[in-house]
Sequence to fold (163 residues):
Amino acid sequence: MTDPLSLCAWLAILVAEQMVPAGTATDTQALSQLTQNAQGAQTSQPSVIDGLDLIPVERDLVERTNAERARFGLAALEIDPELMQSARAHCTWMTLHHSLQHTRQPVAENIAMGQQSGEEAMRSWMSSSGHRANILNPHHRRIGVAAYRTAHGTVFWCQQFRP
Fold:
C-alpha cells in the first residue's frame, strides 16, 4: 500500500513539474485533478466525508482534531470544501517553496513542518498555546486540512478554521 504522505509528495512534484504557479486557481485545479487521479491508483479507497474525497492523511488529521475537541466537550468541526481547497493550495505552496509561512487568507490557521505523522503534528499543535487555541476555539465550526512531503522527506502540515 502506498504511504499517503509519499503519495502527496508525488502530487506536489507533479504540480512542480507542470510549472503551475502556486496559489492560483490553476494550481488548485491541477492539484485537485492529480489527487483524484492518484487516489484511483491506491489500493484503499479514499474516504468521502461530507461529499469530499479525502486521502487517508487528511481524514486522520480531521479525526484527530475532532478527538481533541471532544475531549474538551466541543462540537466536531465540519469539513468545508473551500477550506480544503485553500489548505491544499497553501500546503502545496509551502511544500514547493520549502517555506513555513501563514496564508494571507482570512482564516485561522495552524501550520507545521517536519512532523512525520498526524499524531506528531497534533501533539506539536496542542503543546503550543496559540495553535491549541485555534483547535479548541468554540466558535470554529469548519475545517480544511492538508499534509504534503517534499522530495527530501520534510512534511508540511496545514489546518484552516472558520466559524
Summary: Residues 6-44 have pLDDT under 50 and may be disordered. The two ends are 36 Å apart (CA to CA).
